[in-house]
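User: I'm preparing a small set of examples for a lab meeting where we compare how different chains pack in three dimensions. I only have the primary sequence for this one, and I'd like the structure in token form so I can line it up with the others. Please keep the answer compact; I'll paste it straight into my notes.
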Amino acid sequence: MGVGHVAGGEVHRYSEQAISDALHVCFSFNLIDRLADALGWRVQTHEEFAKDAKFLLKRGYNLIGPVRKRALAAR
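Assistant: Understood. Below is the structure token output for the 75-residue chain.
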């Protein structure tokens, strides 16, 4: 998102809330990208993504429950 997106006259089609939301999304992705570069994160391979997808399709996103339960039990 750049000045051309806002200064091009098309901005009047969108509400202030929509513009604010878009700017927050841009900021968030920019921040994540900078953190990834600074910390040396890498993008998974196609095979790693496929393996994780199979796991999530099988077990879902409820993994945090058992992990949290074990962490609390360890106190």
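A couple of notes for your slides: The two ends are 46 Å apart (CA to CA). The chain has four helices and no strands.

User: Perfect, thanks.
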